[in-house]
């Protein structure tokens, strides 16, 4: 085996490299190109472009990628056009076969002679095109058209999900506008064939890439855990077309495959006919800058493993703030569908309840007016979701100007923490005690629910002066929309501890589900009917 010095010696046939510059677009794979030319070239050759330091970035981007601004994606990316058109052809062929099978089963073999014309005349061609459009759009949203290395889910799973949802959507559409048994039969057969065709084509391309003689020689800077993992991935996925020639590392005791220190990158890259440098030492900015500068000077492709500070990126997410790239390290899940159903439940119940209970509410208003002076409805500022203030409506149960008494009565507070409540509150009117016992004073809050300030179920909204006494850990209860009732009201209604209240609110937030809301509403109804309110 030749020594490193012998392998780094000048070759009889020098290698000339050039740079491929591609604008990185979030969610898209950069277009690949040759990184070597000359008699020993094994890549498709393209004309070299100016070195990026010699051309303004904006001019280079505008001149080189006009298609990205003019043509709809994916037609702006040359490498994806063939894949997209190939998928269209496979799906249309699958529909032709599905139509043939459904026609033979439905009308016999005699129909075969008129299949091409019948395929178009029957509307099957239009259905096939619609299926192809839906499938490719769904595929793009699921990352089907990005390189395999950019997906954590295998392509076979993505294709299955894409075809399944496309079939479901088109099946529902056909059931609504065209109840044709032949068309439905074609859809079922075509869906199965489309999956087999798309998944099989991608498997064939992976095998062909793995067997191809075209290899991309890679040097990895950093022989640590990350560098070894990258090398192991390329060894297990030959379809990536990368061959790891070795590592560059400053380690005193070099491990297996270490060809030398990063300072000798130029000589080692030439000796190994390297096309690409992968930097895995982002934690050492000085060394990373040295390697990147050296690689660019010798016209080598450079990739960098970013420092993610222990975070695991589940899916590639890159966006731009102007010219500054932003990498998403974590994104909280948002149950949009469940929250939409919760809002639908709030609106439906509040509308029905306001309509049915309007006679009772009119009676309560009359009793309040007869019992004491003052307005029927008491509207007070409350703190809602994320600290947003709103006016919370209740039937008035206290005397006018009751808020002015609160500071004088705070010494008698029976609740722990920032909340205020006393059992024999002298501010409460006679009708007010009855209303509070059965929680009837809160019926006007159905209007708050209808407006969206509140929900049927959630943590109770606190007055502004109580909110001003919150500790840092208390703010978590404001992550959700406040409610008329909640877990605390049906489990520890008379507990004086604010910490118990807070613990139950946080339990509701962390374990929330639509079914939990339904159960709390049912239990609230039982509590109200028993008259166990304050």
Verbal overview:
With 534 residues, this protein is α/β, with parallel strands linked by helices. It folds into three domains: 78-211, no CATH class; 212-328, 3-Layer(aba) Sandwich (Rossmann fold), CATH 3.40.50; 336-530, no CATH class. Helix content is 47%, strand content 10%. The chain contains 19 helices and twelve strands. It has a five-stranded parallel beta sheet with strand order 3-2-1-4-5, with helices on both faces. Strands 9-8-11 form a three-stranded antiparallel beta sheet. A two-stranded antiparallel sheet has the order 6-7. A hairpin with a 2-residue loop joins β6 (318-321) and β7. The longest helix is centred in the middle third of the chain and has 36 residues, at 336-371. It is flat, with a radius of gyration of 34 Å. Mean pLDDT is 76; it is low at 1-65, 74-78 and 108-113.
Topology of this structure?
Elements lengths: L3 H4 L49 H8 L1 H5 L7 H30 L7 H7 L2 H18 L13 H23 L3 H31 L4 E6 L3 H12 L5 E7 L9 E3 L4 H7 L4 E4 L5 H13 L3 E4 L13 E4 L2 E4 L8 H36 L5 E7 L5 E7 L10 H4 L20 H8 L7 H7 L3 E3 L4 E2 H4 L15 E3 L1 H5 L6 H14 L2 H17 L4
Helix pairs in contact: 4-6, 4-8, 6-7, 7-8, 12-14, 12-15
Q: How is the quaternary structure best described?
A: single chain
**In percent, how much strand structure appears in the residues?**
5-15%
**Structural class determined from secondary elements:** alpha/beta
Instruction: Provide mean pLDDT, rounded.
Output: 76
| Silhouette | flat
Helical content (DSSP H or I, runs of 4+): 40-55%
The tally of domains stands at 3
Largest beta sheet: what is the strand line-up? 3-2-1-4-5
Please give the largest β-sheet. 5 strands, parallel
The count of helical stretches stands at 19
Count the E strands.
12
| Alpha-carbon Rg, integer | 34 Å
Alpha carbon gap, first and last residue: 89 Å
Catalogue the unreliable spans. 1-65, 74-78, 108-113
């Amino acid at each position: 085996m030749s020594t490193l010095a012998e392998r780094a010696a000048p070759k009889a046939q020098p290698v000339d490299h050039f740079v491929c510059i591609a604008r990185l677009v979030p969610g898209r794979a950069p277009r690949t190109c040759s990184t070597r030319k000359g008699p020993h070239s094994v890549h498709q050759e393209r004309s070299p472009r100016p070195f990026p330091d010699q051309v303004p970035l904006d001019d280079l981007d505008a001149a080189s990628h006009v298609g990205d601004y003019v043509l709809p994606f994916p037609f702006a990316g040359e490498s994806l056009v063939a894949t997209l058109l190939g998928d269209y052809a496979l799906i249309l062929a699958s529909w032709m076969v599905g139509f043939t099978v459904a026609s033979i089963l439905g009308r016999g073999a005699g129909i075969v002679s008129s299949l091409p014309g019948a395929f178009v005349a029957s509307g099957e061609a239009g259905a096939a095109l619609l299926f192809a459009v839906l499938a490719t759009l769904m595929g793009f949203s699921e990352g089907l058209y990005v390189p395999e290395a950019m997906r954590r889910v295998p392509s076979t799973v993505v294709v299955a999900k894409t075809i399944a949802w496309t079939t479901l959507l088109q099946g529902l559409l056909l059931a609504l506008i065209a109840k044709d048994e032949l068309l439905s039969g074609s859809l079922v057969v075509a869906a199965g064939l489309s999956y087999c065709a798309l998944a099989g084509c991608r498997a064939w391309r992976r095998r062909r890439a793995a067997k191809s003689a075209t290899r991309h020689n890679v040097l990895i800077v950093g022989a640590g855990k990350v560098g070894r993992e990258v090398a192991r991935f390329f060894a297990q996925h030959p379809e990536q077309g990368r061959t790891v020639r070795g590592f560059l590392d400053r380690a005193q005791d070099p491990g297996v495959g270490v060809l030398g220190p990063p300072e000798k990158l130029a000589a080692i890259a030439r000796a190994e006919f390297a096309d690409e440098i992968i930097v895995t030492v982002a934690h050492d900015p000085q060394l990373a800058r040295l390697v990147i500068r050296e690689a660019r000077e010798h016209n080598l492709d450079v990739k960098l493993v970013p420092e993610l500070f222990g975070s695991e990126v589940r899916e590639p997410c890159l966006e731009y703030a102007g010219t500054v790239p932003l990498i998403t390290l974590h994104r909280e899940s948002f149950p949009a569908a469940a929250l939409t159903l919760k809002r639908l439940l709030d609106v439906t119940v509040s509308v029905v309840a306001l309509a049915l209970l309007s006679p009772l509410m009119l009676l309560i208003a009359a009793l309040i007016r007869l019992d004491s002076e003052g307005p029927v409805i008491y509207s007070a500022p409350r703190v809602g979701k994320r600290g947003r203030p709103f006016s919370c409506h209740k039937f008035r149960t206290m005397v006018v100007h009751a808020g002015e008494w609160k500071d004088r009565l705070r010494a008698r507070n029976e609740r722990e923490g920032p909340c205020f409540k006393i059992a024999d509150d002298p501010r409460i009117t006679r009708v007010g005690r009855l209303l509070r016992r059965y929680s009837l004073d809160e019926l006007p809050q159905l209007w708050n629910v209808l407006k969206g300030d509140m929900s049927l179920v959630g943590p109770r909204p606190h007055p502004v002066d109580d909110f001003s006494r919150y500790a840092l850990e208390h703010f978590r209860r404001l992550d959700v929309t406040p409610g008329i009732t909640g877990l605390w009201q049906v489990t520890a209604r008379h507990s004086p501890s604010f910490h118990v209240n807070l613990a139950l609110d946080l339990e509701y937030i962390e374990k929330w589900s639509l079914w939990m809301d339904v159960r709390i509403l049912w239990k609230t109804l039982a509590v109200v009917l028993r008259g166990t309110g304050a």
